[in-house]
Amino acid sequence: MAKQSIVTLSDGVNILVRLLGESEDRTKPLLIVLHGGPGLSSHVEPENSFGFLASRFRVLVYDARGSGVSDSKPPLTDERWIADLEELRQWAGEEKFILAGGSYGGSLGIGYTLTHPEHVTALILRDTWANGFRGTLRVMDTIARSTEITTDRAQQLRLWSGTLRDNADFEKSVADILPIYTAKRQGVVPGSGDRAFENVKTPYQYHFETHNAAFSYNEPRLDVRSRLREIKVPTLVIVGRHDPVTPVEDAQEIHAGIDGSVLAIFENSGHSPPSEEPELFQKTLWDFLNKL
User: Fold this and answer.
1) Could you tell me if residue 52 is inside a domain?
2) Residue 200 and residue 46: Cα distance in Å, rounded?
3) Domain CATH number, residue 233
4) What integer pLDDT is reported at residue 184 of this predicted model?
5) Residue 203: is the preceding peptide bond cis (ω within 30°)?
6) d(CA 46, CA 30)
7) How far apart are CA 42 and CA 36, in angstroms?
8) Number of C-beta neighbours around residue 44 at 10 A
């Protein structure tokens, strides 16, 4: 069961929001999950990954400004996306909540927790980084070394530098890079990774301007490594052993920076443990949440 709403923010932007489970049951704690890939991903990704928690939580997922079917009014900055999340918390009517985010959504989760620590009771970070400039350079190095990427290297440079020409350029760049994302495609013998992305509906909606803003402006300025120690809430850091985008060393860096955090490395996953090792992912989340 899910309740879908269009929420109008203070600057007039309309955001698609979905509350999963018994959305009116205020006895359940609120869990907000942020999607990755600005301008590409949508609420579908976190709904697929975290929807199983709706039995015990009010799970809120949404299309961020400039993604999915939500409005694309600028500024498309991390600061604005964090402010949007704060408005949605107020709309949901909860003073405190659990925050989760994957990939780009994970770095926004860190940013929100540093900006509004009084509202976050626990933090779940999946396959993310704390330094965007180093991260994007490392991805380009991975692409340069890969034998599976057959696209024009200049096209991948446009993708990761945020200089895409149009949506067609965006779509082709994403299609060409997908082979490196899963452990299965890297010659690893997967466990449940055999089902990676199978039967998971992720209708990409391309907004190249949003992606360009994220990777030309936001990511080069992202460096919260020195502030990780300020995060005092229980934190779970998840990463796929074979993630070429946000590798294990990034997760280890976040884990080392957040005192008392839990690090979970998924040995048969790439960038998406929820779809590559779903049973273990769900067990890991329940183990963490049951201790709160």
Assistant:
1) yes
2) 11
3) 3.40.50.1820
4) 58
5) no
6) 15
7) 8
8) 19
| Rounded Cα–Cα distance for residues 49 and 273 (Å) | 9
Q: H or E element: which one contains 229?
A: none
- Is residue 255 in some structural domain? yes
Note whether residue 262 is domain-resident: yes
Cα separation, 94 vs 250, whole angstroms: 31
Count structural domains, the chain. Answer: 1
Question: Do the domain assignments include residue 157?
Answer: no
Is residue 292 classed as helix, strand or coil in its secondary structure? Answer: coil
Q: What pLDDT score does 94 carry?
A: 96
Note the pTM of the prediction, 2 decimals: 0.93
CB 195 within 8 A of CB 281: no
Give the tokens for residue 122. Answer: 């626990």
Q: Which two tokens stand for residue 94?
A: 């909860």
Q: Where are the alpha helices (DSSP H) in 72-185?
A: 78-92, 104-115, 132-145, 153-161, 167-177
Range of the domain at 235: 3-134+213-290
**What pLDDT score was predicted for residue 201?**
41
| pLDDT average per 10 residues of sequence, the chain (292 residues) | 93 97 83 97 95 96 97 98 98 97 98 98 98 96 80 88 97 88 55 35 80 98 98 98 96 98 97 96 98 97
